[in-house]
Design brief:
- By secondary structure, this protein is an alpha/beta fold.
- Helix content is 32%, strand content 23%.
- The strands form 5 sheets. The protein has a 5-stranded mixed beta sheet with strand order 1-7-6-4-5, sandwiched between helices. The protein has a 4-stranded mixed beta sheet with strand order 8-15-14-13, sandwiched between helices.
- It is globular, with a radius of gyration of 20 Å.
- Pathway: Lipid metabolism; fatty acid biosynthesis.
- One of its GO terms (biological process) is secondary metabolite biosynthetic process.
- It catalyses: malonyl-[ACP] + acetyl-CoA + H(+) = 3-oxobutanoyl-[ACP] + CO2 + CoA.
């Protein structure tokens, strides 16, 4: 029987650490206000010279090293991002592949906002279990600082930049398999979390001839916009229901889960979901206080912290869940199929 396994995990954190005190200098806000409402203490921003593909490259390179694979061993590269290098083309995955030396292989982006990593797992699992590919590099990468309005204290203090990557490959060991992935979406609340487009010159010039022009969602800003209270309430309800569903469908209980790794958006959301699902402190993985909301990168970045603390072992069952713009959401039951951090370091040091 062919299964898909998460062979390696890695992340990249850009160099500039931005504290809440830094925001106090430019906004009517305070460290106390931010921590109380979000749990976030620091976040990291990419340099002006760094693009999303640069962050993805760093995480992808390390994930490949930890999996013991070379560029020619990768069959496809998929990147999840809401902050691509280019507006429409080429894809960030194409650029990242080139930087990694992966040539003449499929490479494409997906846009599922904060649920991006769950969607990546779903795609990789399907490709591998169908026999289409044997080894796939998936990367959640974000330079969200490039789409933030730094005069809007309700959004700019929440987000950070970063990247997380995994090598997903084939295995015959069910004890190391990605067991199940749920993904879903509903565009009814598309305006809860969005980055609007500015009206183009051509649309303005020919608006009298474009019958559908009134239906365009046109704005004067491309900055990220969010309805915080509405998103919070819907996120908690949706995530609890989705996690309960995936556990029930797989005949599992919360105590069967080694680590619960939710999307790192807001500490209040994480705690609310964790409490309703009866996960204890040892199971719950939290990194939002360090990195803020890094969207598609947040789950693999949190997983990498767990890995680098040498807590993640072969066969450990992780439950992942995320909720993001679209609106999109998803959950996944994933067993870790790679070497522990200590074993991987010893292996890399020996070669």
């Amino acid at each position: 029987m062919r299964y898909a396994t998460l062979k390696s995990i890695a992340s990249y954190v850009p160099p500039t650490c931005v504290t809440n005190a830094d925001f106090e200098k430019i906004l009517d806000t305070s460290d106390e206000w931010i921590v109380k409402r979000t749990g976030i203490k620091t976040r990291y921003f990419a340099l002006p010279s760094q693009n999303t593909s640069d962050l993805a490259y760093e995480a992808g390179k390390k994930a490949m090293q930890r999996a013991g694979v070379r560029a020619e061993d990768i069959d496809a590269v998929i990147v999840a991002t809401l902050s691509p290098d280019y507006l429409t083309m080429p894809s960030t995955a194409c650029i990242t592949s080139y930087k990694l030396g992966i040539e003449n292989k499929p490479a494409f982006d997906i846009s599922s906002a904060c649920s991006g990593f769950i969607y990546l797992l779903s795609l990789a699992k399907s490709f591998i279990e169908s026999g289409t590919h044997r080894r796939i590099l998936i990367i959640g990468a974000e330079k969200i600082s490039s789409v933030l309005d730094f005069s809007d204290r309700s959004t700019c203090v929440l987000f950070g930049d970063g990247a997380g990557a995994c090598v997903i490959e084939t295995t015959e060991d069910k004890n190391a398999a990605i067991l199940d992935v749920h993904t879903s979406a509903n565009g009814k609340h598309q305006d809860f979390l969005c980055t609007p487009r500015i009206q183009s010159v051509s649309q303005s010039i020919f608006s009298d001839k474009l019958e559908s022009s009134k239906s365009f969602c046109l704005h004067d800003s491309t900055y990220l916009q969010m309805k915080g209270n509405e998103t919070f309430k819907l996120a908690v309800k949706t995530l609890v229901n989705d996690v309960n569903d995936i556990l029930t469908n797989n005949a599992l209980q919360p105590q069967d889960i080694a680590y619960f790794i939710p999307h790192q958006a807001n500490l209040r959301i994480i705690n609310a979901v964790g409490e309703q699902l009866s996960f204890n402190e040892k199971q719950l993985v939290i990194s939002v206080q360090k990195y803020g909301n890094t969207s598609a990168a947040s789950i693999p970045m949190a997983m990498n912290d767990l890995y680098e603390e040498n807590k993640l072992k072969y066969g450990d069952l992780m439950l992942l869940d995320a909720f993001g713009g679209g609106l999109t959401w998803g959950s996944a039951l994933v067993r870790f199929g790679g070497k522990s951090c200590k074993e991987s370091k010893s292996f890399l040091d020996s070669i």
